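This part of the workshop introduces the protein records we will be handling. A record pairs a protein's sequence with a compact description of its fold. Comparing a sequence with its tokens is the quickest way to learn the format. To make this concrete, we reproduce a full record directly below:
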Amino acid sequence: MKRQLSLTGKQWVLRDCDEREREGLVAALGVSPIVARLLANRGLGTAEAARDFLSPDLSRLHDPGLLPDIEKAVWRLRRAIANQEPILVYGDYDADGVTATSLLIQFLRMLGVEPAHYIPNRVEEGYGLHADAVEAAAGGGVKLIVTVDCGVSAAAEVELAAKLGMDVIVTDHHEPPHVVPRACAVVNPKLTGGLYPFRDLSGVGVAFKFAWAVAQSFSPGKRVSEEFRNFLLDAIGLVGIGTVADVVPLVGENRVFAIYGLHALRRTTHPGILALLAQARMGDKPLTPRDISFGIGPRLNAAGRLARADLCVELFTSSTPERAAAIAAELEAKNRERQRIQTAILEDARRRLAEVNDWERRRAIVLADEAWHAGVVGIVAAKIAEEFNRPTVLLSLDGDVARGSARSVPHFDLFGAIEACEDALLSYGGHRAAAGVKVRRDSLGRFQELFESQAMKCLGSWEPCGVLEIDAEVGLPAVTRGLVDELERLSPYGEGNRPPVLACADVVVAGRPQLMGQQGQHVSFYVRQGETSLRAVGFRMGDIYDTVSAGDVVCDIAFAPKVNGFRGVEEVELELCDVRVRQ
């Protein structure tokens, strides 16, 4: 495919495909060459791997007994239950953390235990296990702390807990630092030397596996009792929310959790989940990861960003429909407030970046401001990283300390880069794509220099422009309802399994393009190739209207094929990703 001008400023890259793998998949699975190419491009080049992907099943979930320290964790929890020791579940304030906390509380209640729980305040305390909270737990008589979605970086805090007479079970999924806590058990699939086959579980995924292992310990064999089985099947709904919202790769076990979790959410009778779905206006249609990413997840995260994440735990552990509805309404209000704050920070960051005149030598962005809300900078950092194609750190200044969030770009190990800057940081944590940092105000300049240096090492020869990966080039006549239905077998889409992007070269813009939306922010027009014409829709691409309206425009289009069921009439249309005008 010839390189032409992209109207969104992106470089198109056609993904390579092993033709032998593609042909083998066509023969073994009976799929179309396009789907076979997509499978091979996703690293599913063998018939066995492709079958597992196309037909995910609960039987594909790995035995929790393979997780590091899981037997120690089960033994210590059972001892606490038997001795009626006070237990504290210590979580995190994001959607992954609150679903993990809620799942473990529900499970312990099922075992006859009423645990306490603690979610740190994002703005005042920040992420992770905190010394003040550990001391307060000891003062309250707690004997066992179980962390979920945090703890693997809390060596000092775990040591403090031991001195105060408490044991700690760490369940986490974040990248382990150089020094792992000396807890009575550290359950994390990312631990070096571990035997667990899948390292990309979410925090709630690890909590689910811990509950599963405990349930097994109360059963005569690996198969759990019907009561435990029913609990776990229902709890997969929470796992689905946390897994999708935390943007872990939707492959392997996470793909199973996402698919079965979405089904579990639809059949649930839990008042908290029902209230949340109603507030997000999900209706009765089948749920998708997009519904969680843009509907459920932001409402849960808004509580931790602007208020108390405990609200979400109460929502998921409450059995009163009236209280659940009230909490869901409060989350809705907080989410709208978050959107307003987010817009203001984004506009301010863009204004400051517009004043930068040496982009050619910069590979990273670090910005700080006293007016920025610490609970919202992470969302804006993600948007800035995508818009400017550079790893981005945004921080909120509060006195002598700055707290913030970092977001990555493709092929950049964000956690590794931040870890290399630890001499300038008070604390940090995260993974390859996202991280949190805490730094002294007088160390900001040093951190910026170190972070820029790390970005330059990795991205120095990289052209900082957007890249659009194309899965396959097709002719317009090949884009049929049958193809759309077959591509649907690859869903649900999300991190690590993005929606397929197809490209079609030399199409003609037919008829008069139309602007859509209240501000004309969207555009639609028909494209023709030979005897085939299809409608193309570009969401948030209204600025290309003048170009495609010039008359006799020939272009290449990148798109995702969809079925539009407007007014009960189903038609194939193309959701545009980009356009290149032929010159």
Summary: The longest helix spans residues 321-354. The chain has 19 helices and 19 strands.
